[in-house]
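Sample pair:
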Amino acid sequence: MLLRLIVENFMSYKERQEFTMFPNRDIVDLPSHIFDEETIPLLKMAALYGNNASGKSNFTQALSFLRTFALSENSIRQEMVAKHLYRLDQPDKIRESFLSILVEFKIDESYYVYNIEIDLEGVRLEQLSLSGLKGTPENLYSRHRSRIELSESLSSKSRDQWAHTSDILEKRLEQDPFKSLLSLLTEFPVLDEMYIVQAHTWFRQCLVVTTGKTSHNELNALLYKIPSLSKFTSQVIEGVDIGVDKISLKETELATWLSQHSDLANTLDMNRRVEGSEIHSVVSHSDRPILNRINIDGKEKILELVFSHQGGDGGLYELDIECESDGTIRTLHLMPALFEAINSFGVIVIDEIDTSLHSGLLLDLLAFFSLNSSKGQLVFTLHDTSILDSIGILRSDEVWFVEKRAGSSHLYSLDNYTTEMDGDIARKYREGRFGSSYIGNLTRHSDAVRSIVL
C-alpha cells in the first residue's frame, strides 16, 4: 500500500511537494474507506483534480519513473533524466540540478521508505529504509554514486557474502551509473535479506501505473488464464449501461481460424509459431487489440472477444471489438486495474480515468469500487467535476488538487478547505474557491482572435 509520495525538481514539480494517503480522523463519512486494521490507518482512494498542464500526469509519471528505476527493466539514461528534470530554469542551473522522489509504502507487515536523487551524471543517492512505524527506523542501505553502505544490523551471512562481492557490485554501478542498486541486489542476491526481496516485490507486483490511453493488448489472454478476472469483467460490463448484454471469449483452434480467415493469414503475421507463455497480439489501426494467439499444451489457439447486443426484435446479436465504441473499450481496459485494486494489496494509479467515459458511467464504476470491500488502493486523476457532488463516493481527504503557480506544480488536499462533501463542491471548485481550476476566458480576446481568423 502507498503511504506518501514526495517529489522535487521532477518535471513540473520544482519545489518539494508531498502527497499522502493518511485519513483525517475528524471526518466521519465513509469509514469503510479507511484501512483501520493497519498499524497506520490508510485511505483506499484518492482523486486528483487540476487544470490541463497543471501537473496531474506528471504526478503519475513520478511513480512510473520511480518504478522503472527501481526495477531497471528498462534502462534509464542521461537523456531520460534530462527530460524529467524541472526545466523552466536557467540552463546552468538545470545542468547542476537533480530530481528527487521519495515513496513510503507497506508490503506484508513491513513499512519502507525508498528515496532517490538523480542528476545528469547518474544516481547521487539511493536509499532503502525501514520507516520505523513498527519499531526503530533503520537504514538498510545507502548508495552514494557507486559507493554503498550497509546497515550494521544485517545478518552475518549477508555481511560475509557482501565482503566477497561488494567490489563487483560497485564496479557494475560505476559502469552503469543510472542503474538501481535494488534491482542489482535482486539480480545478484548476495544479501540474504527478506527486506530487499519485499521492497523489490512491491515495485514489481504492487505498484501499477496506467494512463487513459493504455490498451491492454493481452487482455484476451488474461481473461482466458484468470477465470476470476473473466467473471468480474463480464459482471461489470453487463451491469453498466453501455448497451452490451453479454461479453464472451471465443476460443478457436489456430488451424480452424486460419481456414476461416485465409485472406488475413499473411497480413497478420500468422506464419510464425507462438512458443511457451508467449502471447501474440494483433492490434487494429486504431490501436485496439483484435485477438490474442496463445500456446496451450502445444496447441495454438486464437482468442477473440464477442459482444452481444439486444436488437429491436428482442434477439441477441454478436459484434466484434472493432464495432464497439471507445467508451466500451475504455471500460473494458479498466477492468484489470479495478480488479487488482479490489483483490490485491497494491496501489493502482490511473491517469485520466475519465477518458472516453460518460460521467454517469464513471460514477457507476467509482461507486462500485467505493462500496466494495477492497484490499488495495485506487489513485486516479480526472477532470469530471460531477464526481465531487456525488455524496457517498469520496471523502474530502481523498480529494487532491494540482495547481500550477509561477511555473511550478503544487499539491494540496480539499481537506485543507472543508471536511464536508455537501453536494456543492463542484460549483465551488469551478468558481475557483479551492484554486487549481480553469480561469482562462478566450472571449476576452475575441477581437484579436477574430482579426486573425478573418
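The chain has 13 helices and 20 strands.
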